[in-house]
Amino acid sequence: MESKGKNIITLISEIIERRGHESYLGEGLSMREHMLQTAFLAENEGGSDEEIAVALLHDIGHYTDEFPEDSLEKGQNNFHEDCGANILSGFFPETVVEAVRHHVEAKRYLCAVESGYFACLSAASVNSLNVQGGPMSEDEVGKFEKYACKKLSVKVRKWDDAAKVVGMSTPPFSHYVPVLERVLITREK
Ligand code: FE
């Protein structure tokens, strides 16, 4: 299992190396810069290994077409948060997988419950919010608050929102490989 887990880190690393230059959803920076900035913000605030891992990998679902066919089959729709969670499932703990799955919901949640949050969103993020369903309804808020991953997904969401600084320098992906290795599931499957 351990070597299988290391394989997924290598695969993710290669994808980010090869395709990380692609634009981050209408923002002024690349996917690689955004992913590394999110991880860097988590690290700078003393985030745990799991928090840094979610921060680094939350948008990996944008590269679903890079993963083996069985991963694609596990991805049930085109929502990048679900695709990302399905890719990571089986390699990373449930908390990490579910926090990735709910990072878009966390934005919808924060828009509903935290005054001033919406005003901090970038224009591109406001645009995607509308596609993603807008702020949560009261019922959705109640449901979301019961999720075990709520705290982690909300925390990472704020790093995600802040990680859009053009020209910020960060450590490379390789700096975070030991973090990912510590978070990987090592038990026998
Ligand atoms: Fe993001």
Structure description:
- The protein is globular.
- The protein is 61% helix and 0% strand.
- Helix 2 packs antiparallel against helix 3 and helix 3 runs parallel beside helix 6 (94-101).
- The protein is built from twelve helices and no strands.
- 39% of the residues are buried.
- With 189 residues, it is an all-alpha fold.
- Fe (iii) ion binds at residues 34, 58-59, 160.
What's the overall average pLDDT, rounded?
A: 89
SS summary, helix count: 12
The bound ligands are: fe (iii) ion
Class of secondary structure makeup: mainly alpha
- Oligomer class: single chain
The biggest beta sheet is recorded as: none
What's the end-to-end separation, in Å? 7 Å
> Which regions contain 5 or more consecutive residues with pLDDT less than 50?
none
Q: Which shape, going by the Cα principal axes? A: globular
Structure described in brief:
The chain has helices at residues 2-19, 31-44, 49-57, 69-74, 80-88, 94-101, 103-113, 117-120, 123-131, 138-144, 150-162, 177-183. The chain is mostly helical. The longest helix is centred in the N-terminal third of the chain and has 18 residues, at 2-19.
